[in-house]
Amino acid sequence: MEITTTQFKHCDLVKAKGRVDSYTAPQLAEAFNNLTENGRYKIAFDMSELDFLSSAGLRVLINTQKTCKRYNRGELVLVSIPENIYAALDLAGFIPLFKIYDDVLSAVGSF
């Protein structure tokens, strides 16, 4: 799995490519934790090149969302979710917990 982070004026964009499973989820958690530890709580997560998201990946998303929303500091928004991952998020009941955008531009502009 490859993770890239791009810093913008009002938010950060995290893009993951490949699979997020129990082996790679800690890398994703570390990428999000690096941002939140530096006071960056407005995060857009580009999932356009993600092939798979396991329950460990779902846990990373929920924990990051909780950290970002604590004290109304910001939030984690999801961008370009592939159909199979959207179905998994829907099945787990996670869709109402996140704002979802079709493209990076509108997600970054939402902050």
Q: What characteristics describe this protein?
A:
5 strands; Transcription Regulator spoIIAA; 32% strand; alpha/beta; 111 residues; single chain; five-stranded mixed sheet
What does this structure look like?
By secondary structure, the protein is of the alpha/beta class. The chain has a single domain, classed as STAS domain (Transcription Regulator spoIIAA). It is built from four helices and five strands, in the order E-E-H-E-H-E-H-E-H. It has helices at residues 25-37, 55-69, 83-92, 104-109, and strands at residues 2-7, 12-20, 42-53, 75-79, 99-101. A hairpin with a 4-residue loop joins strand 1 (2-7) and strand 2 (12-20). Helix 1 (25-37) runs parallel beside helix 2. The mean pLDDT is 92.
Question: What is the CATH-assigned architecture?
Answer: 2-Layer Sandwich
- Tell me, rounded to a whole number, the average pLDDT: 92
End-to-end separation: 27 Å
| Inertia-based shape | globular
As a percent range, the share of helical residues equals 25-40%
Question: Largest sheet, if any?
Answer: 5 strands, mixed
Strand order, sheet with most strands: 1-2-3-4-5
Question: What is the H/E order?
Answer: EEHEHEHEH
| Rg over CA atoms | 13 Å
CATH homologous superfamily descriptor: STAS domain
Give unreliable regions as ranges: none
Secondary-structure blueprint of this entry?
Elements: E1 2-7, E2 12-20, H1 25-37, E3 42-53, H2 55-69, E4 75-79, H3 83-92, E5 99-101, H4 104-109
Parallel strand pairs: 2-3, 3-4, 4-5
Antiparallel strand pairs: 1-2
Helix pairs in contact: 1-2
